[in-house]
Specification:
By secondary structure, the protein is of the alpha+beta class. It has 2 domains: 153 residues, Roll (Nuclear Transport Factor 2, Chain: A), CATH 3.10.450; 163 residues, Multidrug-efflux Transporter 1 Regulator Bmrr, Chain A, CATH 3.20.80. Helices cover 22% and strands 34% of the residues. A hairpin with a 5-residue loop joins strand 10 and strand 11. The radius of gyration is 23 Å and the shape is elongated. The mean pLDDT is 90.
């Protein structure tokens, strides 16, 4: 059974490698919110299309990729039966035939029905995919829905964006773990930021803008309000840890500037890697708007079986991506840290 799980892991990690068909039953079935297929050849053609290995796939898609977050199950029970293998993943691809070339993103799980048999001693009978955005129900379970719901969810991602306000800088990178109903879960790397207390956001932006001139700060600006003390801080990310690193490399320029008495109210902080639930809003970041978005996100986390870090219970944290005096559709977010053991990633 471990061999089969390793095969599945390889197929996720090496999305463009040939499928190991000897591990699949000839009449293997595949179902997801958009498609229902039967037979190993149809199964393989579907994978090849998404990975742009077929003519249709090359015409429709580019930059396809899938990330495997975890794999579990596949235990052999006393009666000889095998429990389902469940994988958790994030899929993305760019739909290149549209002029604005939108990128569609999906996250969810695949449930593999497995039995003894076949040339390898064990084989996959079926794969059922569920998307977090439409199949996840209260309590963290999954339920199949009509394929028209899946089509609507997919088409919504292909719509052209309205004129967006210009970003204040390059975005702090992250790994999307879940695209849920009205929210995302992201893993952010450790990052170094400059932080100050503030009273008015516009004044805070101006002060941080003066400090970071020449340092290329990253969007978003992150504001935190402590409900217990009413203390408010604003920070801009400056550097982030590269893959495989626990912390970002120290930049002498940043620390040298922060040691200048001129900037004695500025603090350089290093934020550890964390998993964050994120809710978006496009209205101005007024207190009632932000608090409503925060409340809705907390309710959504509870609905979907995600546990919020108790340390963030009294903290209102929100992000602004846009330059402060810009025009266009604005991008604001509320961020809530998840407990280390409060999510499935």
């Amino acid at each position: 059974m471990d061999r089969l799980k390793k095969v599945l892991e390889r197929e996720y990690v090496s999305f463009f490698s040939p499928m190991e068909k000897e591990y699949y039953a000839e009449n293997v079935s595949f179902n997801d919110p958009l498609n229902s297929l039967s037979g190993v050849e149809a199964y393989e053609n579907n994978v090849d299309m998404l990975s742009s290995k077929t003519l249709l796939g090359k015409f429709l898609f580019r930059d396809a990729g899938i990330v495997l977050h975890n794999i579990k199950g596949g235990e052999v029970l006393e009666d000889g039966s095998i429990t389902d293998i469940i994988t958790r993943w994030t899929l993305r691809f760019t739909f290149q035939v549209l002029p604005w070339q939108p990128t569609a993103r999906f996250s969810g799980i695949s449930v593999y029905k497995v039995e003894h048999g076949g040339p390898k001693g064990v084989r996959i009978l079926s794969q059922q995919d569920y998307w977090d955005s439409i199949n996840l129900i209260e309590g963290g379970e999954y339920k199949a829905v009509d394929k028209t719901v899946g089509l609507s969810d997919f088409l919504d991602q292909l719509k052209p964006e309205q004129l967006a306000a210009p970003s204040a800088g390059s975005e702090l990178p992250y790994q999307m773990l879940r695209r849920g109903k009205g929210y995302e879960v992201r893993r952010y790397p450790s990052f170094t930021a400059v932080r100050i207390p503030y009273v008015r956001r516009d004044d805070g932006f101006l002060e941080l803008g003066s400090f970071t001139r020449g340092l290329d700060p990253l969007a978003p600006a992150l504001m935190s309000v402590d409900s217990a003390t009413s203390d408010k801080t604003m920070m801009w990310p400056l550097r982030f840890a590269a893959p495989g690193e626990k912390r970002p490399k120290e930049d002498p320029t940043i620390f040298s500037k922060a040691s200048d008495p001129e900037w004695d109210s500025f603090e350089i902080v290093t934020i550890p890697e964390r998993v964050v639930a994120v809710g978006s809003f496009s209205d101005a970041s007024m207190e009632p708007v932000v608090r409503k978005a925060d409340r809705l996100l907390r309710e959504t986390c509870e609905r979907d079986g995600l546990q919020v870090d108790t340390a963030s219970d009294s903290i209102l944290r929100f992000a602004q991506y846009d330059a402060i005096y810009s025009m266009g559709k604005r991008r604001g977010e509320v961020w809530i840290d998840l407990a280390d053991d409060g999510h499935p990633w």
